[in-house]
From TrEMBL:
Keywords: Repeat
Stretches assigned to the EF-hand domain: 72-107
UniProt entry tagged with the keyword Ubl conjugation: no
GO BP terms, alphabetized: calcium-mediated signaling
Family membership: Belongs to the calcineurin regulatory subunit family.
GO molecular function: calcium ion binding; kinase binding
Database matches in PANTHER family: CALCINEURIN B, CALCINEURIN B-LIKE PROTEIN 1
Protein name: EF-hand domain-containing protein
Organism: Ceratopteris richardii
Length: 115
């Protein structure tokens, strides 16, 4: 798995994997450890390939992960997805996913939870 992360930041030209961000940088920006970020990447891959294998989590995949259902509109899932989707692209990349989850981490600051 580290090869995914290392491939994103080496000087050799390589195809960058979608959603691939440096786990050390993400851990420094969030309340997660590097190991937790790596585990979250595995979860991200599972969710992001549940309906569409494009390296992003779409709203339907997000709702499916939360409620095992994509057929009913769910205000809670919609709002939570909008909070995570800081770029407003209608899809979550890995960084948005980790940063969004970080606000629920018990060690995150009150400011991060409110922001």
């Amino acid at each position: 798995m580290l090869s995914c992360y290392m491939g994103c930041f080496t000087s050799k030209p390589q195809k960058q994997l979608l959603g691939c961000e440096n786990p050390v940088a993400l851990a420094a920006q969030t309340s997660f450890t590097v190991s937790e970020v790596e585990a979250l990447y595995e979860l991200f891959k599972q969710i992001s390939t549940s309906l569409t294998n494009d390296g992003f989590i779409h709203k339907e995949e997000f709702q499916l992960a939360l409620f095992k259902n994509t057929k009913k509109d769910n205000f809670f899932a919609d709002r939570l997805f909008e909070v995570f989707d800081v770029k407003g692209a209608g899809q979550l990349d890995f960084g948005e996913f980790v940063r969004g989850l970080s606000s629920f981490h018990p060690d995150s600051s009150e400011e991060e939870k409110i922001d």
